[in-house]
Amino acid sequence: MRGRRISITCDECSVHKISKFKSLNDSELDRINYHKSCTAYKKGQILFHEDTRPLGVFCINAGKLKVYKTGDDGKDQIIQIAKSGDLLGYRAMISEDLYPVTAEALEEVKVCFIPKSEFMKLIDESHDFVMMLLKDACQELGDMTGMMTTLAQKSVRERLAVTLLMLKRVYEADTPEGEEIEINLTREDLANIVGTATETVIRLLHDFKEEELIRTSGRKIMVLEPERLVKVGNIY
DNA sequence: GTCTGCAAAACTCGTTGGTT
DNA sequence: AACCAACGAGTTTTGCAGAC
Q1: What is the reported pTM?
Q2: Residue A196 beta carbon within 7 A of nucleic strand B
Q3: CA A207 – C1' B12 distance (Å)?
Q4: DSSP letter string, chain A
Q5: CATH entry, A4-144, from 1.10.3720.10, 2.40.170.20, 3.40.50.720, 2.60.120.10
Q6: CA A2 → C1' B3, Å?
Q7: pLDDT tens for residues A57-92?
Q8: For the domain bounded by A154-232, which CATH number is listed?
Q9: Cβ of A207 < 7 Å from strand B?
Q10: Which residue is nearest to nucleotide C13 (CA to C1')?
């Protein structure tokens, strides 16, 4: 299933200022612009599969993706919800590994693909760019450590509270100021982040609703009381 | 008591075809 | 082209039994 080719130039890109490419100079940016290809993916389409070889990196222009790993029992564990401005696939490429995860569009997604050769040239030439990648990789390592601890030590109820707060941060980036933040994810995806069964997530969401911590409208979830969710999640 | 898995019912959403 | 109803697929919810 392939996406539809589209055209986005870096200087008119809406996320350029928050992307990893913000430190590049004009000539470096021109080169990326020349070599990259941009694609629109529909919901459910796959950008890259686990255990395939990276041929380049993906810069998300618009939309959200779930990044997940499939376990031995066939169940998916969602590692990350990637959003506009995020860069995907560079760690596996730099370490010359296969992709450890799959990236799938959660909605209409616009993505720019930068071939490996051009990306590696940038790493050779731009110190600022390398530092930016290093910072990002270290940050993610820290996040993963936190996630592992959360999954291992917290109850499902606590994990769901932590997950809702994390998703609120992800979704508020795309929400105009003043508007209510809506987390738009299936219950199954939510369960795959929390690491539990869909039914358990639905039951706990029902409890959170009763406690007026959240409100739901169809599949959409609105966090009403983030401070109380912090307490429920035992976050200090 | 907490959580999971299964099954069934209820609900939502996207697609399709007909009508205006 | 716009609107609407019907339909089917997918998703959500609920109840129950059982494992830990």
Answers
A1: 0.86
A2: yes
A3: 22
A4: ---EEE---GGG-TTGGGSGGGG--HHHHHHHHHH-EEEEE-TT-EEE-TTS---EEEEEEES-EEEEEE-TTS-EEEEEEE-TT-EESHHHHHTTPPPSSEEEESS-EEEEEEEHHHHHHHHHH-HHHHHHHHHHHHHHHHHHHHHHHHHHHS-HHHHHHHHHHHHHHHHHTTSPTTSPP-EE--HHHHHHHHTS-HHHHHHHHHHHHHTTSEEEETTEEEES-HHHHHHHTT--
A5: 2.60.120.10
A6: 39
A7: 999 988 889 998 887 767 788 888 998 889 999 999
A8: 1.10.10.10
A9: no
A10: A202
